[in-house]
Amino acid sequence: MAKPVKRCNCRDSNGKKLGQKCPKLTQRAHGAWWGRYEAPPGPDGKRRRPWAGPYKTSTEAATELRRLQTEADSGLPVPDRRLTFGAWLDMWIAGKRRLKDSTRESYEEAIRLYGKPGLGHVPLDQLRESHLEALYLAMGQINNLPFGEKPSEMLRRLLAARAAAPWVYRRDAQGNRLKEKLPAMGSNEAGPAPGMKSKKPLSPARIQRVHRVLSSALGTAFKQKRIKHNPAEHVELPKARRVRPLVWTDERIARWRETGRVPGPVMVWTPAIAGAFLDACVRRGERLYPLYHLVTTRGLRRGEVCGIRWEDSDLSVAKTIMVLETDDEDDDGLKSESSWRTVAVGGKNATLLSAWRVQQMRERLAAGEDWVDTGLIFTAADGSPLREEYVSERFAAIVDGEDLPPIRLHDLRHCAATIMLAAGVDMKDISATLGHSRYGFTADVYTSVVPDVAQAAADATIAAIPRAIHKHDH
């Protein structure tokens, strides 16, 4: 181990670094202390003598070099101090080979728009909690910078990355280009993601989703001993406001028709409205009716229903399907890629799916050699996977065409829960059916719909009693 030396980044007239030869190094405040130590040979067997630094004093440098040399001599992996956080994010996402396309796109968006422009230049082994906190602070200031305050360098980098984000055209299930133009990697079920090209600030929930991606990448780095601790574990995040569903009551529907304003961001149909939607699907001859019926009654996520396979179904005896759970904004943390749950579909859904299988076989015969054998239950007419955005767009078109109170496709999960509540299903069974990781989460979310459901049940009970005389009590 060599003795620490003092170096700086000054350059001569030819642009060459002076390093240890700078005449200003005699000044106490100029330059910093660096040192080299003997690391284990690389994969090619060649000698490795990494530089470590900068340090404020020679004493600090000598102490740290002794620690690094002891660590290297112990045989433990030595962090690659040339590996930046941005380079590691690229390595990490490239290794996630089993991700769904839509999930990969959301991860890549978090990396491209926030992780790399914000912190990509920081050496991986030097990333600290303060770096992540500064990133999330800057994200919270997008379209939300206090009046008169100048943007930080971090915020300027994020804004530049968002301004340079490419745009793509939305396509239907068959790949045909549609008229509407959306930002690449920034589309949600109904349009551009908040903040991508709009003037809305990023929500705390969105910042938390980005954090989960970066935290997962850092967790992998920690497991591989590339870093000594995961700085993402101890970062305080902005608290996301829990948005509870509201039921489309008669009063809310009347107000919506009068003003055009939706009462809340998450709305839920009553069983009667859900029935009207399913009836409309039948009347219209909607090809995806079995899919919408399954989601409305069993509460599958969009990615889950588009990913179920015939080999994971038992429609004749158990009447169940096995679902590979997808990442969902309802739940905390990233789900395991091998997280499965079994869902009982019931007799009606089993009948619809059996009829769908017959229809799919007819489509396969019609497609001939052009058929794409994916093994999926729900596919396009040529057997290729359904685009999740297309499933949402078809749903929105039916809702709008039938003049039904608007909800998102994802809100059919809440409709399923509401219908199960109205039918008297226990909350724990509802939690298991929906695939929530915590029962408490289910109870917390649906507390707001319980009074409306209970009131509807009370009215239905009273209405079921035959009366010859109807007298109003005063």
From TrEMBL:
Per the database record, which ranges form the Tyr recombinase domain? 264-459
Show the InterPro entries listed in the entry. DNA_brk_join_enz, Integrase-like_cat_sf, Integrase_catalytic, Integrase_recombinase_N, Integrase_SAM-like_N, Tyrosine_recombinase_XerCD
* Name of the protein in its database record: Site-specific integrase
State the residue spans of region: Disordered.
33-54, 183-202
Q: PROSITE patterns this protein is in?
A: TYR_RECOMBINASE (PS51898)
Q: Which species?
A: Nonomuraea composti
The entry's keywords: DNA integration, DNA recombination, DNA-binding
Lineage of this protein's species?
Bacteria, Bacillati, Actinomycetota, Actinomycetes, Streptosporangiales
